[in-house]
Specification:
It comes from Actinokineospora xionganensis. This protein is an all-alpha fold. The chain contains five helices and no strands. The protein is globular, with a radius of gyration of 16 Å.
């Protein structure tokens, strides 16, 4: 078992930080989209829809993107665009939308309209 852990550590050590950050961002984006129900034909009836969970994931994504934007280079724009799309989708999905600046992650990104 220790050998397997050592191999994983070496594998991680060989991956550039921008790739690790990008992979984490993509995972958070995918999970957020699932929790918003966006993977289903009718998001409102999706069995995976959970706006509380989506809020947490989008906020975590916003924190990651804001903290690491200087390291993302050409990946920064598409990741930010994805984040803003999720923030808008959250607002549209909410029965009582947050005011601009108070939605998920907006304390890190600023208001999203």
């Amino acid at each position: 078992m220790n050998e397997s852990l050592e191999e994983n550590d070496r594998d991680l050590a060989s991956i550039p930080s921008v790739e690790v950050i990008s992979r984490a961002a993509v995972m958070l984006m995918s999970a957020s989209a699932e929790r918003l129900g966006l993977a289903d034909a009718d998001p409102e009836s999706s069995p995976h829809r959970d706006l509380d969970e989506a809020r947490r994931l989008i906020t975590a994504l916003a924190g990651l993107v804001t903290a690491s934007v200087e390291y993302l280079g050409p990946h920064a724009g598409p990741i930010r665009d994805g984040l803003q799309s999720l923030q808008r989708a959250f607002r549209e999905s909410s029965a009582f939308p947050d005011e601009p600046g108070h939605g998920p992650g907006e304390k890190f990104t600023g208001p999203v309209y």
